[in-house]
Amino acid sequence: MSLATRDALEFPDSDRVFLEPHLPAQDTPQIDMPFTTLTFATSLDSSLALSPGARTVLSGPQSKAMTHYLRSRHDGILIGVGTALADDPGLNCRISGVGGYGKDGLDGQPRPVVIDSTARWDFSEDSKLFQLCRQGRGRAPWIITALAEPPAEKKALLERYGGKFISLQMKIAENGKYIIDWKALLVTLRTNGLQSVMIEGGGQVINSLLAPASMSLIDSVIVTIAPTWLGRGGVVVSPDRRFDEGGNPMSAARLKNVKWYPFGEDVVLCGQIKN
Ligand SMILES: NC(=O)C1=CN([C@@H]2O[C@H](COP(=O)(O)OP(=O)(O)OC[C@H]3O[C@@H](n4cnc5c(N)ncnc54)[C@H](O)[C@@H]3O)[C@@H](O)[C@H]2O)C=CC1
Ligand SMILES: Nc1nc(O)c(N)c(N[C@@H]2O[C@H](COP(=O)(O)O)[C@@H](O)[C@H]2O)n1
Could you report how far apart the first and last alpha carbons of the chain are, in Å? Predict the structure, then answer.
């Protein structure tokens, strides 16, 4: 076995079948917006991680391979800067047979996209993403920022690896935080060539995307549920509650066309957001 394939993950054809209806069609071009999949791994108490700074393994081996297969089926993979800071993630696809893992080029490798309104991610040549770029096993990130002029040094490093900053106008909330317009972001990603994007997290990204104004932009939801409780204090997926016309609380969002697939010790839930 060659060095290139020794650490590759296997995801058998038999496991791919159930995912197909939930994935972007391979031969249907997306015109204005990319196909958007919301996908993450959660605990039984809806936590993504033990704390905002903690890289936490939830997926078992089979669902981890599934996540990498999903990465191979999307042009882009989007996270918030909180995840970049906490995890120093690779955000590449390690399925056997994609570019860098048994094949030349970068075929099957998604474009990492990081929402970082104020360009606070202090990446360097040592960041995992850039190591993978040097090894021919991943693409350089696009960083979505509210700054019209991102820091020159970071810009130069990014561009050296084929990445870039994308400046996008963002509103500022009362608490001083930038708020992205999800539709504008997705249109921008499509304009930049991405036909499909998987949104992995973390908590702030998912909770804001599941707000009434943006949840309809999600085409597919694929969630891995791991048989563990992380306990209080974790990074929780729990969007703001909604209220009906009478002021009574109602669910924030609900899925339709739901399918559950046991996968190793985990269960994978697929569905679409109910409008
Ligand atoms: N289990 C899983 O599948 C995953 C777990 N995680 C975990 O999640 C944790 C990180 O989550 P969070 O701390 O919530 O950070 P996050 O990854 O959601 O990033 C938060 C930052 O992203 C930007 N951002 C997010 N939403 C925005 C919006 N609507 N408008 C403008 N900017 C926005 C802001 O700069 C914000 O500070 C990490 O511990 C990571 O390991 C992350 C992804 C997947
Ligand atoms: N699917 C899934 N299962 C878990 O248990 C996880 N902790 C995550 N986290 C996400 O994957 C990123 C790490 O990716 P690399 O392995 O470094 O490529 C991490 O940053 C989260 O986005 N996902």
Answer: 49
User: How many whole angstroms separate alpha carbon 200 and alpha carbon 194?
Assistant: 16
| pLDDT tens column, 203-239 | 999 999 999 999 999 999 999 999 999 999 999 999 9
Complex-level ipTM: 0.99
For residue 235, give every residue at least 6 positions away whose Cβ sits within 8 Å of its Cβ, in sequence order, or none.
47, 48, 49, 51, 52, 202, 203
Report yes or no: 50 and 233 within 8 Å, Cβ to Cβ.
Answer: yes
235 CA distance to ligand 1 middle (Å): 9
Ligand 1 nearest-atom number relative to CA 56 = 41
> How many A from CA of 77 to the centre of ligand 1?
13
Burial of 166 (0-12, 13-18, 19+ CB in 10 A): middle
Q: Are the C-beta atoms of 76 and 197 separated by less than 8 Å?
A: yes
Q: Which residues pair with 249 in a beta bridge?
A: 243
